[in-house]
Amino acid sequence: MNVMLLAAGEGTRLRPYTNQLPKPAIPFLTLPLAAHSLGFLQDLPLNKLVVNTYHLPNKIHTLFNNLSHGAKELIFSDEKGEILGSGGGLSKARSHFQGGGDFLMMNADEVILPKDSEVLSKAIQQHKSSGALATILVMKHPEVGTQFGGVWADDSLTVKGFGKSVVAGSTHGWHFIGVQILSDRVFKYLPETGVSNILYDGLVAGIADGQKVQVFPFECTWFETGNPKDFLEASKHSLEILMGPNSPEKSALQKTFQKFANSKLRTQNFSNALMHFSAEAIIDTSSKYSGIVCVGSGSSIAEGCNLENVIVGDGVHVTAGTAAANTMLL
């Protein structure tokens, strides 16, 4: 299957870290966020992998060229002058998808741990058998309609509209996790140029034209990683999963590590901290650690440090006596 990964965003809520790295390259459990998106797709045979860029495009190129994405062809769609949005970005890349049938589109910075390892193949099967214009992967979330806009559908799982307000004819609001399967008919409903949104422009126009758009609900652990506080909370929750009993979520994380980690990774309790680190990292055991501490490949922590809830990127040398809390050292 052909896949579009959306990697153009500026990650404004994660600044200042995203001034240095694009969000898909920010390390989550020592792997770039993009590796976790690809981890969700790893059992799917990939033909074309199209990645759009805008913010720090050269770093996005380097990131994906160095990832074991498994696609037969890696293509970059570079947006210049203005960021085009999910619809505009897809429309700019339409030549790679038109005439190729159904394809998948996903955010390049998602961490999704499904309870069913076959959920993606089941969603694709449902999409193909229904002939839908789009099949949107969704989950239950208590903050749909308040913190998050919802995908509003009826009892037959047919989408009626999108937004924070309940849409007429719908019976339930679902949370969109950033993954959808699209028919290449969708390009009929997207402007050929300029900024647009795949949901509010493309799919809304398709629904108005009588096209079927449906949701595919499934159970998963999904993390909000858009701001530093939620990013650290997601890291903590994931490390607790790794340290806990066997579960589908733990298996999903381990599979992603096996495919994308360049060195062996370890997760262990150390003094007052839950630590996750590359076996290649050099960590001074006399330093003080608390909360969670993640340390990337080729990094080192010198003596006399005091780190609490700190993410250390690849190749970072934390100098002696450093005190840091609730931050990333990239």
Compact description:
This protein is α/β, with parallel strands linked by helices and about 325 residues long. It has helices at about 15-20, 35-40, 55-65, 85-90, 120-130, 200-210, 230-245, 250-260, and strands at about 1-5, 25-30, 30, 50-55, 75-80, 105, 110-115, 135-140, 150-155, 160-165, 170-180, 215, 220, 265-270, 270-280, 280-285, 290-295, 300, 305-310, 315-320, 325-330.
The CATH topology assignment of the largest domain is Spore Coat Polysaccharide Biosynthesis Protein SpsA, Chain A
Report the sheet with the most strands, covering strand number, pairing sense and barrel closure.
9 strands, mixed
Distance between the termini: 34 Å
Q: What's the CATH H-level superfamily name of the largest domain?
A: Spore Coat Polysaccharide Biosynthesis Protein SpsA, Chain A
In the CATH scheme, the class of the largest domain would be: Alpha Beta
In DSSP terms, counting alpha (H) and pi (I) runs of 4 or more, how many helices? 8
The average pLDDT is: 96
Structural class: alpha/beta
Shape: globular
Question: How many strand segments?
Answer: 21
Helix content: 10-25%
**From the coordinates shown, what is the CATH architecture of the largest domain?**
Alpha-Beta Complex
